[in-house]
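## tool: complex_structure
## caller: assistant
## args:
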Amino acid sequence: MKRWWIRPLVRVVAACLLPVAVPAVITAFIWALPGDPASIICPPELCGGTAELAEAWNLDQGATHFYTTWMGAAMTGDFGNSWRLQPGVPVGELLASSIPWTAALVVLAFVPLLVGAAGAAARIIPRQVDAILQAVGLTPSVVLALCAAAVVTITYGAFAFDDEAMRVKLLLGALCLGLADQALSGAVTGVRGLMEEERKQRYVQIAILRGESVLSNTLPNTLGALAGQMRARLLHLLSGAVIVEVVIRIDGLGDLLWQGTLSQDFGVVLAAAFGFALLSALLLLLQALVEVATALHVRRSPAGVVS
Amino acid sequence: MNRKLAWALATLCFAVLFVPGLFAPEHLSPPDMANAYLGFSSAPPFGADASGRPLSEYAMQGARVVALPALLAGLLVVFLGTLGGLLACTGSQRAEAAAQGFGEVVGALPRMVVVLVVALLVPKDARSLLPIALTWAVLAAPGAMDEAAAVASRLGGARFVEALRAHGFSRARIYLIHIVGMNLRPVLMRQGVETMMQVVFLEIGLSYLAVQDSQPSFTHGDSEKSWADLLYFGYQAFLDIPSSHGLFLGLALVGVVALMSVFVTQAVRAR
Amino acid sequence: MKPTTRTLLTALGLAATATFATGASLTFYEESLPSSMNPLFASSMVDNRVHELVLDRIYHHDPITNELVSDVVERWELADGGKGVRLYLKKGIKWHDGQSMTAEDVCFTIDSMLDEGTPSPIAEKKRAVFAGCDAEKNDVALVKFVKIFHNPLNRLGIHILPKHVFGETAIRPDHQFSNRPVGTGPMKGSMGRRGVVFEKYKNVHHDPQIDQMTLQEGGDPLVQVRTLLNNGVQGIIAVPPPYRADVSASDELTLKSYDLRSWWFVAVNQEKAYLADKRVRQALNLIVDRTDLRQLSIGVKPGEQNSPCEFISGPFVQTSPYYNRSVPTQPRSDKEKAFLLLKEAGLKQVGGRWHYNGQPITMRIGMKAPLNNEAPDLLSQVGNQLGAAGFDRQEFRITVDDWNRKVLTGQATDYDLVVGKWSFGLVEDVNPLFHTRKDNRGALNIFNYANPQVDALLAQFDAARTDTEAKDAYHKLHEKLAEELPYLFLWKLDTKSAWRTEVRGNTISPYFYWTAFDSWKYGS
Amino acid sequence: MSALLELKGLTIAIPERNLVTDVDIEVHSGRITALMGPSGSGKSLSARAAMCFLDVDPGLKAGTLKYPALSGDKDWFEGVRDGGPRAQDRLLKETRHLRGAFVTYAPQAASSALNPARTVGRQLELAILRRESPPASPADLAQAVRECLEDVGLPHTASAALAGELSGGMAQRTALAVAVAPLPKVLIADEPETGLDPVLTRQIIELMIRVAQSKKCGMLLISHHEETVERVADDVVRLPPGGHG
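## result:
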């Protein structure tokens, strides 16, 4: 029997690698671009003596030096100042102000998924519903998002960034994210499929003959897979958030990444990607945690066993 | 739904969507103010844009933009999925660990981040959906590989192979026909088509964002129009501009893409 | 369409009520967010306008009388035998953080420009003007020039920066100031992710009537106008011509002209072998049908009276004294003539496509992406006309970044044609556009056009001591360029702002827009 | 003396044919009833029916099921006959409390019949807690677990093992232990010999009988081994092949 802790371990390792790897890739990409990084970030005719900037931004001593210094600073929560997007603003500030929006958006969008999944697992949601959910899920998020954006723009005009409008946008965004691209239907059908598959297992049938409850038997065996599915869904939402945030104009991480990308403000791009990587790593860790927890629960030696 | 019908419908959708791409004009035809904002009509059939250029040309160019990349992305996923399935049949611990490692790291990458980075990396002359689509396919692969592996191990993985060996089948035959052909096909086809659909939607998404900020598109040359341009043109209907026909056409195309994936999924359902 | 209309109207109703709730705070749409609030790193008209609200220039032209005046200088006198001016500053002027402005600050501004460590092209140009500065007293600054200028105050149109905020004279673009500047201007501003918020700052030299003002990025012009109509915003800095009709139709809005002398052009890359030949450039000039372009992109009907868009034959707007009226414009295309020229220049037409040295010509046409708002679809229309004339072509939208990084620095030589627009204030200095690139001259010479005769004319303008001399030089230049055609000159397109009628006393100054902001009022 | 379990005229059908037709089974306290028949004759099906577990469509056509010792003359199939899956599900829910506590099931091929995600000890605990008077304190529970293990001749250490980690014989013993842990009145043993070598089979079956007798419960032994049945059974029910009577 394969050692149970290998899978969670791999996940934990991956989770640790992710936030380190993503900025590394992007750094490599900055240096892969034609022209020297400093002048890409701040064109000579915008800021004449680019040499000073290169030095100030650690761009003058090659990719490795830049990466290590950036990482080092990032570890202490210092991401430097924005170069282009909002010159002079600490990127940390931008990050701090963005993550809550994205988190809120994704969590809001995830709630219906969770409910749906639970409903499917407990056989509350009838199969007939799936068809409807799937039909809705066929619309790409961008289409829903642009309708939402139109409504918001027309309704709020220049007040589209007031608290009320932002709340509305958050809800609409969550709705788009949750319904579009098969997010909800995927969660429902996925979980149902998993549970039905397990229900068919012989040990469950026998357990029924012994008068035990089905769920108490199947759950421990499916929890890992369920956690996996839920993580996949969350990731899906997370990456979907980029488009939804940009279209509906929510000041989240995705929008930050997009704006940073457009204005080639690599400080911001790095930080935003780092933020995403952190969130994704967090999900990995959670999944690993669930797996370990179930494994330990399963192995919890019963009362008064002298072994 | 009966398989033959499903296949027929899927093929029909595919043809309707992508074949026009082959006949797409390189540039939109010259403007004709007489047709400006012309709705669905006899000629041009799908109406015209603000300067009277037929929307059908938008649709065709959009088809050309997405057709090949989406197809290749789908194939890539199918290929990687097959790999995952076959790995599970080798029953080698190391192979499985490697597959999982790959899955964990790649699967955990925030897709849009990677896609945007790739989009930036592509030089503006070679700007095309293809690299983005392939990246997306690679990012989507772990899911397909997992599912294929699950199916394979439900077959009994290595034991299944051995059993068939005992019946005197050659390894190649077992892997290609019995495992891939007979058992993995439904999963792989579904995954492949879903990826195709995602790529098309991704293109619409990215292009739409570009149009919105009047930026050059990441996914196609600026002489070309994408389906997103249709949606953007149509979106103005919300602002009382007579361009709803653009919205309808755009949504219709999106709908057909979605239907195609539904039909394929129906068609390949395991018996 | 009907239901949409209804939802729209109800939506508008909603928005209207939403607006009046928020009181005397003013919101307006700009073309984009400023790229930096630090004048040393200004790179767009938006930047220039914003700086005018937040900071003070030492001297500026009065928007009405057009004479040189100052809000911060009490009086001045020549010094150093004409190589310097002594400025006596008004007393009691406060920075937005409450510190008082002194001669130290004036000198710091000049010193920071002179500091090589300040990576600013604007500062770089000033190094050819200023020699230094002494703060002689708390309120007396002696500004020294490198040479005697016949009107030194003209050279003092620079924004004053606060010494206490920066400390060192080497100023970097990513200093907090670029986002949350501290100035002495009428409004205190700070840039957020979605806009810039300005707050009234009463000062001895400024008494703004508007408490709060918000700048937001415009986006889709159609949406902008709709939002203005339903009072979602109170102003739009630049309304594209196609949408001006809606504005003037409404009695709640006023259309105000913004004297920004801007004209449009197609720059031609003479570094491409076949375009090096003047005849080919002239042929292109004949192929482009400006009347059609204008109609299809800007929406000006043929023969429309007082259209916002006048054709030009040279690098000036027709109202400018420098415009040479003896040079005719080219409103319609003349293909026959054009094709003759092309054939003379050795181009051959094979299967309807133009070839050069046996190779089919594919033109790479670029256009600054945001211009698409003002002249929708212009890029593809230019492409169409060239296509119809037998040139294969590829079209490219150029991002603002690429525009600044590549096009303006003369590195975009992979394009054959670039569609763009220049904007000028009262001083239409076209030297940077056409002078051969060397030292800090010809800084905006897109395709590194080099022509000794042109350089000579530009030098003649620089050396001019009287207006007539200057005018004469530029008239000759106009003539020369109209024949040389480093650009195909398209048209001047006047800029118009739209404001709600509740916004009163809103004098719009040429170029800088907000110079007379103190007189602006909002609300009944 | 009255029967513990009384199944009469059981007929279960699928659309094409009858799976079992008119089967009668009685189980008495302390006695072993053998249910015999070739594969596919519906032994397991009948046995499960005796536990109110009918998941066949349309399913129960005819027959009565009584647990005289428990519920006197109540016919548990009342309203289920011809009721289809829905009625059968209802029955299954209604009678859940009986399974384990009153009638229980020792499966064949036990290794695949045990929950892979539960230790032997845990399974026993759950089973023990289904007794009419479950042990009050953790200590008693632990004690009970140990007794159960001893009863089937498993070492205490087995308690910490997962199903997957057991050998065939141990799994079979575990399954038995889990089955009898709730002290049921009726034990249904489904082909205990499957997948075990003759020696082991013998041991297991003897163990079953011993345990069953020690717990004073009646036993329904499903088997197709003449020899086994000859040896141990008090009464024998023979099903015709193919379920046609």
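## assistant note: Chains B and D do not touch (no CB pair under 8 Å). Chain B has one domain: 3-13+53-267. Handing back to user.
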